[in-house]
Amino acid sequence: MYTGLIRFNDKNCVFKLKNYDLEIEEIENRDEVYINDLESIFNPDKRETISLNVLVGKDFDNGKVMHFNPYKITKTGAKTFCASLSSYIVFDDKESTIEGLKLNSEELNWFHNVEHSYSFTISPENGNSEIKIEPYDRTDKRFSFNIEGQKIEGNLNISRTFSRVSTMPLKLKTDMNLYFKATNNFALIERLSNITFNFLKFVTYRRNITFNQLTLMSKYRDTDKYHKVGTLHIKGFNKDRIEEEKVIQNQLIDLPYLENELGKLFDDLAENKIYLTHIPESHADNNTITPARFILVTAGFEWQFRSTYKELNTESEDKYKELKDEIISFLDEKINQHTGKNKKYFKSHKNLLMKTSMTLADKINWALREFNDELNLFIKSVYEMNGINNYKYSEISERIQNQRNNIAHGNLDKEFNNIVVLDLFVLEWLYYAMVLNSMGVSRSKIKSAINKLFKRGFAV
Fold this sequence. Notes:
Elements: E1 2-8, E2 11-18, E3 21-26, H1 35-42, E4 49-50, E5 55-59, E6 65-75, E7 80-91, E8 98-105, H2 106-111, E9 118-122, E10 129-133, H3 136-139, E11 141-147, E12 150-162, E13 170-183, H4 186-204, E14 211-219, E15 226-234, H5 245-250, H6 255-258, H7 262-270, H8 291-309, H9 314-319, H10 321-337, H11 340-354, H12 360-370, H13 372-384, H14 393-408, H15 418-439, H16 443-453
Antiparallel strand pairs: 1-2, 1-5, 2-3, 3-7, 4-6, 5-6, 6-7, 7-15, 8-13, 8-14, 9-10, 11-12, 12-13, 14-15
Helix pairs in contact: 4-7, 8-12, 8-14, 8-15, 10-11, 12-14, 13-15, 13-16, 15-16
């Protein structure tokens, strides 16, 4: 909890910050109460609500400058107010512009695996041991993306901390650093944090991500070196989220699968091109299928399908009829020129183009055939493990559509078919195949990434 002084409504006030609730009390003319001051006490329906920009205070204990970002301020008494904060900053010393954001979480430690930063040898005969730490330039991974017209430079690096007074003399952790033009813009810094949060949700397929610290940085004058100037606290980011250690370490799409597409992934997240609403809270929740979850997963597939394949509708058919005819003619030529897989590839794209009003089942069936080589190994295994040796993509697609329609039409009395639960798992894998493919990830890496994220256990 912080307490201190703050300037509010052109008056000197004291504040008390607990979690993300900021209590403000005027200290000027404390004993004088006016009619306007009493209005909020005797008439709660007319309680004053104020929307303000960033508030600036200074804490009593260390004299640190603090910035508060409220989304609502309500008058609660004659001289008191309560501000609900979305975030706040505690500066190390004086107020400073911000040019960088450093983020660390357990998930990042395994996304860019700390094990890649060292090697060691041990001599059993005499106990002599040696640890070799890789230089920074060998563990540094750079990327960039754009947000609101500004280019953000990012890098992942494995930092090391040495201690002479600990049983762990060397501690390694992965930091994600984002660099940008000097700013005091709370909205930009919060947005970058949220994009990184969404990035980690996507690569882990769960929401219970814990950030250890959000560090604000600025450049030393006339150099390219950065130093810490404060810490950022965002509501909802620092909850005690518990996840099994083996899940954190092993079930994620890590850097080797995304190394060349990392910037594209952040671009897509910044532009809200990736559907994330269906992602479960935890790994355990992924195995709990409810009507709401079923609807969210199917909605996620449909949203991503439209985004990825730009599904044609009746309006666009009329508008682009001439262009469509040219494309169909081109595809017909390719179909006649090729055989085998290539012929099937061009025929599938022609079928997609010809369908201007595809049902959910049509979309799922088409996408399953599109990613058959990447997913069939996992699909075959999950059905055979449940005693189903004969399965068809068309039947999987129809079951999902029928179940979705039952829920959407309020037929909740109909129990889930156990097979539909397996179908939903398939749809989750299909979602990742579409998203990764749209980013440019190779088909072989897509297969390996899904194998690892969903712990399918195959040597692929």
